[in-house]
Amino acid sequence: MKNVSFFQLPPSGNRPSGVEKFLKRSLADLQLDYLDLYLIHTPFTFEDIEGDLHPVNENGEIKLDLTTNHLAVWAEMEKQVVAGRTRAIGVSNFNIAQLTKVLNFATVPVSNIQVELHLYFQQKELVEFCKKRGIAVTAYSPLGSRGFVELLGKTDVLPDLLSNPVVLEIAKKYNKSSAQIVLRHTLQKGVAAIPKSTNPKRIQQNINLFDFELESGEMEKLNNLDQGPKGRVCDFVSFFKGVAKHPEFPF
Ligand SMILES: NC(=O)c1ccc[n+]([C@@H]2O[C@H](COP(=O)([O-])OP(=O)(O)OC[C@H]3O[C@@H](n4cnc5c(N)ncnc54)[C@H](OP(=O)(O)O)[C@@H]3O)[C@@H](O)[C@H]2O)c1
Question: How far is CA 75 from each of CA 6, 51, 69, 178, rounded to the nearest angstrom?
Fold first, then answer.
């Protein structure tokens, strides 16, 4: 675990004393003087054990630090902007109540929130809220994180959104891939997306989204595929046993 680089404040650093320490470590790993954006990765906190980012007890449960204080952490995040180590700051995986609390306290804007967001989990309420408050939303797992669904054995509950008939029909019309249609849908809703691919051709494809526009009827059809929280893939509970016991567990 020693060689893992973090460009968000990891759960084990989510305390006031962790902010500068982990950000400086990221800057050193990246060989940069500053970041453009630094996010608090999760609203919950793990114990900080050197060399073990996800420490577990004898029952395999994640070792939680229950003293999480978002406002105290945010104050330290703001200091990093003042010190020039990052230009902007934000959060990830926070729910609306947690975000509101930070917003009411912040003197440096919450520039961005990164959350799971895709066709089956469109986060309409959060997106609407952020639009009103001028916070940019970034969609992680924007293609539905198929590999992860398979790993969790949830393929029956969460069908592959890239094979959805509505998506396939629209893809055929524009001569685009399913991935391009779902990414374009997200962009047209004013949300940024960070698809991951290890395949150079797909990486190229996933950027090539700006030479077509979905019609309003098509947007509507895609909007209607939302399953709400049932569509969530990344629930954290599946890979951090016991994490839902944390008082700031967001879901
Ligand atoms: N903030 C957080 O808590 C958080 C949590 C989870 C993920 N993330 C971030 O979100 C990013 C993406 O999430 P993700 O990897 O979970 O899910 P994703 O981007 O929805 O899906 C990635 C999967 O889609 C495949 N894929 C990519 N482009 C494709 C295309 N054009 N056609 C067909 N398949 C395609 C990839 O396979 P190939 O590699 O074979 O192309 C990979 O299996 C990652 O960078 C990750 O760091 C953030």
Answer: 20, 26, 10, 42
pLDDT digits (tens, 9 = 90+) for 103-125: 999 999 999 999 999 999 999 99
Tell me which residue has tokens 């460009």.
Answer: 7
Contact assessment for residue 16 and residue 68, using Cβ atoms and an 8 Å cutoff: no
Quick one: average pLDDT of 3-11?
75
Asked if residues 80 and 38 have their Cβ atoms less than 8 Å apart, the reply is yes
Q: Is 120 in the pocket of ligand 1 (CB under 6 A)?
A: no
- When pLDDT is averaged across residues 128-152 and rounded to a whole number, the result is 95
CB atoms within 10 A of CB 128: 11
Q: Is 114 in the pocket of ligand 1 (CB under 6 A)?
A: yes
- Measure Cα distances from 251 to 42, 136, 232, 244 in Å: 11, 21, 10, 8
Nearest CA residue ID for atom 5, ligand 1: 140
Contact 148 CB / ligand 1 (< 6 Å): yes
Contacts of 141 (CB under 8 A, 6+ apart): 116, 117, 118, 148, 233, 234
What pLDDT digit, counting tens, does each position of 194-235 carry?
999 999 999 999 999 999 999 999 999 999 999 999 999 999
* Protein residue with its CA nearest to atom 29 in ligand 1: 202
Task: Select from 17, 15, 248, 126 the least CA-distant residue to 112.
Answer: 126
